[in-house]
């Protein structure tokens, strides 16, 4: 008999294809073959089945695919199914929001959430904004974000002006881009939490929830502490990972991705994003 868990899982299967081709995107860009898509679907179905069966545990799940998941029916189905499980507190996914939104009416809106990113040049602005209005109309919990490149500033300002005030607009510092104080101030006007993204966070030796209450899972069921530390903790499906769960300091010099540093205990982000860590929705108090 294994002890019950209260665990957050970051799932990333083999899917790597995306319907966008953003030049600044760090994710892989390829066209998945039929066989690769079948493998991704089988891996996701296996994970979803496992998660639904863990009724003695409390789980939260964030899907972080290399590609765009919601254009695939199996990801939409996974979110709907998991959202109705009483032992699952939150199920969310990172998405470019190019998919249709009607399927969300089948989900439990108290549990499902979306982390949406707007990519200028990849989709018409009005089309993206209309998708956010549909989400808001349905009552879906979501955030909207953009990469903080200079050429995106006007679009970001337009988004902030046209999104409801209750919808958080986050800004990711662009990879390899440095910001003067003046530049950072412009982005901070739109996202009061931009300072957390502006610089990588020193993490070596510091306490992090990953590996203890947060883990990363790949399509084979291999469990690691997070996406950025390759050491294996065991396997999800044989249960071997459970005995490896324990508080442990970060082995990396810095952490510069939100899905990583949000879990650092040296940062106040669990309070800032209380109730919305996975979908990147901060408390209203944290937005001012």
From TrEMBL:
UniProt-listed InterPro entries: Aldolase_TIM (IPR013785), Radical_SAM_STM4011-like (IPR047771), rSAM_sf (IPR058240)
Domain of life: Bacteria
SUPFAM superfamilies in the cross-refs: Radical SAM enzymes
Record protein name field: Membrane protein
Source organism (scientific name): Streptomyces capitiformicae
């Amino acid at each position: 008999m294994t002890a019950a868990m209260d665990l957050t899982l970051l799932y990333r299967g083999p899917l790597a294809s995306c319907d966008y081709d953003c030049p600044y995107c760090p994710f892989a860009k390829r066209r998945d073959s039929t066989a690769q898509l079948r493998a991704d679907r089988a891996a996701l179905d296996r994970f979803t089945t496992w998660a639904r069966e863990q009724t003695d545990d409390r789980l939260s799940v964030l899907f972080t695919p290399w590609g765009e998941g919601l254009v695939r029916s199996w990801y939409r189905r996974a979110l709907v199914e998991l959202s109705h499980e009483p032992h699952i507190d939150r199920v969310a996914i990172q998405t470019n929001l190019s998919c249709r939104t009607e399927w969300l009416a089948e989900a439990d809106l108290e549990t499902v959430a979306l982390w949406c990113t707007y990519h200028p040049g990849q989709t018409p602005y009005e089309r993206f904004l209309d998708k956010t209005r549909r989400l808001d109309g349905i009552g879906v919990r979501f955030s909207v974000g953009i990469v903080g490149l200079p050429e995106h500033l006007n679009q970001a300002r337009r988004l902030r002006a046209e999104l409801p005030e209750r919808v958080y607009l986050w800004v990711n510092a662009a990879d390899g881009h440095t910001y003067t104080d003046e530049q950072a101030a412009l982005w901070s006007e739109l996202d009061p939490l931009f300072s957390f993204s502006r610089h990588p966070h020193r993490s070596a030796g510091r306490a992090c929830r990953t590996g203890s209450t947060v883990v990363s899972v790949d399509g084979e069921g291999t469990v690691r502490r997070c996406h950025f530390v390759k050491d294996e903790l065991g396997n999800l499906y044989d249960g071997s990972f459970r005995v490896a769960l324990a508080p442990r300091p970060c082995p990396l010099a810095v952490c510069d991705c939100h899905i990583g540093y949000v879990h650092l205990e040296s940062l106040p982000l669990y309070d800032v994003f209380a109730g919305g860590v996975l979908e990147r929705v901060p408390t209203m108090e944290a937005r001012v």
